[in-house]
Amino acid sequence: MTYRAMHTALKVLTALIVTVGVFHSCSKDDASGSLSFPSSTLYFDAEGQMQTIAFSADNIGSITVSSTPSGWTAEADLSTLRMKVTAPAADEPGAERQGTIKLVGYVNGGKSVSADLFVAIAGSRDLASEQSNCYILSRPDTYYTFNALVRGEGRESLATASVEVIWQTAKNLVRYLELDGQGRASFFVGSGDGGALTEGNALVGAYDADGRLIWSWHLWVTDYDPSTQSQTYANGLTFMTRNLGAGANDNATREQILASYGLYYQWGRREPFVGPYAYDCASGKDADMYNGNNSRTYLSYVESSAETGTEAYALANPMSFILGVEESGFDWLYAAHSDDLWGGTAKTAADPCPKGWRVPDGDAFAGLTIADDLAAGVEAYRQSYGWHLTDGVVTAFYLGAGRRSALLGGIQNINTNEVPKPWVGCYWTSGTGSAALTSSGMYFTLDTEDALRSEMRPRTDFQRANGLQIRCVKDE
Length: 476
What we know:
Blueprint (H helix, E strand, L loop, with lengths): L14 E6 L3 E2 L8 E3 L13 E5 L1 E3 L1 E8 L5 E5 L4 E5 L11 E10 L4 E15 L7 E4 L4 E6 L14 E7 L6 E5 L4 E6 L10 E8 L5 E9 L8 E3 L5 E3 L13 H7 L4 E2 L33 E4 L7 H6 L3 E4 L33 E2 L10 E2 L15 E5 L4 E5 L3 E2 L6 E2 L11 E9 L5 E8 L10 E8 L3 E2 L4 E2 L2
Parallel strand pairs: 10-12, 11-17, 21-22
Antiparallel strand pairs: 1-10, 2-10, 3-5, 4-8, 6-9, 7-8, 9-10, 12-15, 13-16, 14-15, 16-17, 18-19, 20-32, 23-33, 24-25, 25-26, 27-28, 29-30, 30-31
């Protein structure tokens, strides 16, 4: 099977992926040697198929395949510098779908080096038709590819020399990310118990030859399909049924409430920020994040300044939440303020929604009111963390997910009562606010002194350094 055949758009193929791991020395002998492969992946059309992969060996006297997953076979020949790998037959009992093959080479002089190769029976999917700042990944055990030489949905080219995982919400959520010779980023999304998709979010970056971050993409790993799970409101706009980056849209349990938190965005920025560690944001702790090596990584908080309050700084520092200051008008941009980053009704280059979706316009939530029975009282809704909103045609649940504070950056999810308590809902639109350097968003709250006084404002002003949730609308 040729490399190009893998990239048939939106067609799932059965594939075997073989990925080269890290080579390491197993001895302190002075002699050195190395093993390497010209390509780090190998694809198989079907179970039971055999293919050959080349390798190079420097100062290696002998080689052996020391381990393989159950059902797999691998034979390496030093004289031809070729290795044959065979996937297990479909009916082979006890065969593993994923595992590691270890190739060991013995240096002339006693030292040994090894190469670990990840193997998996998997599908493949080219995301070329979904080019965007955000990709939805809904298929487990799949090898994905996308064009890493182009920004977002535009045509502006990137001088991408390498790609890396910046952060991910679970270890090994995105594995074996690499850049091929055609400028395509490729990676593997596996599965959890029972073959189910492990849901979460990741941010991957493109770096130039000097190691500078020049763009990033949000990977939304979810079984949610907005093309089949959406709602068309009375105003004719079609909305997703969950927040951007969320794993659910429900408040039946604490676990579902936590999963329903989407990602937070500063107005006009593409870069997402994770939700809370706990469903009630009680500790103020962020959700766990890991880099591509599965080590913990953390957000940073920097005040907007002439240096940090720029689009260029935001692009190069996607894990920095830029705090608003008085001098910036509490915008994350310090001086070069812009109403156009998300502005208007057309999708912009900075829009964080997936292909075919965009940030809703300023009046998108007009006509929505609280559908829940407020006469039931505060205790009926204290743990509901959100309202069902209706326009008379459809009813949709919106999580009260709070916001990331423009001044502090941490997640705050409390109302404005004399004794503040959870919860409030804050959702961006692409519209500008009535006050200078503000943008509009939807706001609602539970009044924990009198539920009948609970508010729902379809459009209100927010300072742009705030981090709010987004409910994407179809781009039509």
